[in-house]
Amino acid sequence: MAPISFRARLKTAAISKKRSKSKAKHRRNGVKDMQESFKKLKTEMEEISEEQKNIREGQRQVKEKFEAIESECEALKRETRLIIQQSARTQVKLALMFRILKAREAGEFDSAAHLTELLRYVS
Prior knowledge:
Blueprint: H1 6-105, H2 109-122
Region (Disordered): 14-35
């Protein structure tokens, strides 16, 4: 191998020095970029967390409204059943009254008395 001159050594030393400086500078920039990326990620995660919190609150409100509607629906069903029962009872009473009138007109007082007892029982 040929001996390397002093100038060549200085040149290679200067080049390697430049490379190490640019690498160090690049590393510092890389760390700054990474820190900025972490900050951005952190703020995005906070925003996502807030959105999820809002979504959960909305779901809770919808669930409460749904439960209130279900409760109201059940109350309406009970009221409807009561009205149907009362209507059926009224129909039976009207039918008995009509038969009592027909029995009295026909002079069948025994059956009229029996129907009157039934009417008292239904009431």
